[in-house]
Amino acid sequence: MQTASPVALVTGASSGIGRAAALALVGAGFAVVGTSRNAANAKPIAGVTFLDLDVASDESVRSLVGEVIDRFGRIDVLVNNAGVGAVGAGEESSINQAKDVFDINVFGLMRMANAVLPQMRAQRSGRVVNVSSVLGLIPAPFMAVYAATKHAVEGYSESVDHELREHGVRMLLVEPAYTNTSFEASSMAPDSPLPVYAAQREVSRDVLATAVRNADAPAVVAKVIVAAATDSKPKLRYTAGPMARRVSLLRRIVPSRAFDQQIRKLNRLAG
Predict the structure, then answer these.
(1) Which stretches are annotated as coiled coil (predicted)?
(2) Dihedral sign (CA 147, 22, 173, 138)
(3) Is residue 141 part of a domain?
(4) I want to staple 111 with a disulfide (CB 3.0 to 4.6 A). Which of 61, 153, 162, 166 is the partner?
(5) What is the pLDDT of residue 2?
């Protein structure tokens, strides 16, 4: 099934930002493939073909990308959106748990990029849009492992973008702040919880839940993803929503001591 429309592949498209991005890309004229761990259970979207994918599996990624190219003839945009949250003090996550989070948020993104880039280079066009976070720019107490994955995505994406430009391909970053999704409810709890952190961990969960409840709708981020996918002169970084823009600006211009104090205040940390 070849198509004259540009083809976008969106990971983690069954809910939240991924679902909103799939909808918005259909509206922008793309033929969209959305992925989910169990595509049969995904609520249908007109114009979106849902396929199974586990970004933590090399074989699943290879199979999925091969199937999309066989069915649609090409991939013009990859939106790396699939991810998992993790809440708890850094000391409370075992190395194995941290590896699991990295395997999805970082190595899953790399697997997907490595799978689509040969075809994009061959056609001398394409964009990989990586959904990062402002937590890739700032510290995140009691979300240290998650923040570490987003910092990794930032460094990887900016570096690879330099490698790809001469081949007609770009790797771009979309940086939301908190978004009104099920992120908090579905985030991993620490597998090695310690009593010394218990009270502050619950405070931090409350801070996160409140932030998510009052956050931008996924459609706000989806609009920015479409811009990254379609701008004639794309930027490396796209902040998504007013809070993300403020955080990004303040990180650059506020003195480090003042910024540190603000982080502690926002996270209700003593001292």
Answers:
(1) none
(2) negative
(3) yes
(4) 61
(5) 66
